[in-house]
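User: Hi! Is it possible to get a structure for several chains at once, not just one? Here's what I have:
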Amino acid sequence: MKLSAKSIYGIRGLLDMAMHSKSSHVKLSDVAKRQKIPLRYFEQVATDLRKSGYIYSKKGAHGGYGLAIPATQIYISEILNVLEGDMRLTDRPSNRQTLLQQCIEEMVYEVLNEKIADLLNSTTLQKMLDNYIEKECEPMYYI
Amino acid sequence: MRISTKGRYALEAIVLLAARSKETGAVSIRKIANETGISYGYLEQLFTLLRKCGLIMSKKGSKGGYLLSRDASSITVGEVYLHTEGSIALVGCDDEKPPYNTEKSFIIPDLWNEIDDTIAYLVNNITIESLASCFLKRESEQNYNYNI
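Assistant: Yes, the chains can be modeled jointly so their relative placement is included. Here is the combined structure:
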């Protein structure tokens, strides 16, 4: 039940873009290098994100990529919908479930899927970034 | 990121095993196959795996079949998935291979840990006993309704 490589790389790259594209555009190759993402892979991810309207590309000398929507308004669930398809651990139940399947559906799958959806629907790219920066920039105290 | 077919079938089979063995002792693969619709051949292989993992045990003889190896209240959904999925983590940042492996230069969002912890907490706290009870209760309610 692992998240696909596309999603892991995609989010990592997008966070990097959010961090570095505030004042200028970023090159995909720079993002890929910083986050150790295979470039070919990341190019495909960027195409998907561009087509869905989350990032834009600008040609020319100072060109590159940037976020098309502020990081505060991009929810992780949206990005994963583009890259992963959907964020469920199971397919939607059919109408013809046995009694046993219904019990398992209600007590296990529904609970899991809802909880995951809640987490993803309430987390923005910016929030993820803030958490990361906070973690990374914790001052170290020396006595 | 789907739970595998193996995982889904294993959970169904184990819950049914828990429910039926309460009533009748050891349960045959044939019975599980008939009630779940899962193919006999598949269940044979699955049960070999589950036996090797120590989740179920076989009882030989005329009234033979399979039983849970421990009380249903001490077996969790998480344990079943551990054996069928390998790991219950969505991201599992301590995996060795990219993209799951982590290095200091990578952005490792807290969110992944939060999701993994949430999943682990949930599946490790749902027992086979609770699922089997739910099933048996609904079954008897259904039978009651049919018998009026």
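Chain A has a mean pLDDT of 89. The interface with chain B takes residues 1-5, 8-9, 11-12, 15-16, 19, 34-37, 76, 84, 87-91, 98-104, 106-108, 111-112, 115-116, 119-120, 123, 128, 131-132, 135 of chain A (CB under 8 Å).

User: Great, thank you!
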